[in-house]
UniProtKB/TrEMBL annotation:
Keyword Isomerase in record: no
Keywords per UniProt: Cytoplasm, Signal
Listed name of the protein: Rho GDP-dissociation inhibitor 3
Entry's Gene Ontology molecular function annotations: Rho GDP-dissociation inhibitor activity
Keyword Signal part of the UniProt annotation: yes
InterPro entries: Ig_E-set, Rho_GDI, RhoGDI_dom_sf
Family: Belongs to the Rho GDI family.
Signal peptide boundaries: 1-18
Source organism superkingdom: Eukaryota
One GO BP annotation of this record: Rho protein signal transduction
Pfam families, per database record: Rho_GDI
Length: 220
């Protein structure tokens, strides 16, 4: 019996060693790319029916514990200011240099002025983009900010920022981009036009506009 057990043990060890050698030689099967696998699994899956925040809050109204849980999770729209217009209101874009005063573009008025009135920025300066906005009636998912930067009609840069998902509230939300750096040098100085767009996962476009800045040797 002992001899038989030793034989079985040796056979198991041989299998383990063979498998290890295959892995070491790179013979293991390749994993299916996550993106392709996701598409195959979800392409025939019907998306859930969209439901506004008020409908969600009114469901199961007789269950007090569930009502309290949903209020904590989703918030209540009863006291949220509704200014009319779209559900998401983009109030301002702020050009925020790290070591200089900010430039605020008020997006509630005439947007055409920003394209033809560039503000001056110092070459090589570090800065952030801030977005000030409100969500007023329903929660929104996957807010995104896109921008494409042009010089003399040629696109020289582009960016796509995931702003996030938010629930309604009277107070304004503020999003800040990572720090970026302006062009510098003789080739970097000049006038730039930025085409911006604010959207969400449902392809709603809340605002599209153009603005401009001028890169110079120093702040003016």
């Amino acid at each position: 019996m002992k001899g038989h057990a030793c034989v079985i043990l040796l056979m198991c060890l041989s299998c383990v060693c063979a498998t290890a050698l295959q892995v070491k030689r790179g013979d293991e099967p390749k994993a299916v790319p996550a993106q392709r696998g996701t598409e195959e699994l979800t392409r025939d899956y019907p998306p859930p029916k969209q439901m506004d925040l008020q409908t969600l809050q009114e469901r199961d109204a007789d269950d007090e514990s569930l009502v309290k849980y949903k209020e904590a999770l989703l918030g209540s729209t009863a006291d949220v200011l509704d200014e009319g217009g779209q559900n998401v209101l983009l109030k301002a874009l702020v050009f925020a240099p790290v070591d200089h005063e900010e430039t605020v573009l008020d997006l509630t008025g005439d947007l055409s002025q920003f394209k033809h009135n560039p503000f001056v920025v110092k070459e090589g300066a570090e800065y952030r983009i801030k977005l000030i906005f409100r969500v007023q009636r329903e929660g929104v998912s996957g807010l995104r900010y896109f921008e494409a930067v042009y010089r003399k009609g040629i696109r020289v840069d582009k960016a796509n920022f995931m702003v996030g998902s938010y629930r309604p509230k009277t107070e304004e939300h503020i999003f800040q981009s990572p720090v970026d750096e302006l062009p510098a040098g003789l080739l970097g100085r000049g006038d730039y036009i930025v085409k911006s767009k604010f959207t969400d996962d449902d392809k709603n476009i809340y605002l599209e506009w153009e603005w401009s800045f001028s890169v110079k040797r120093d702040w003016e």
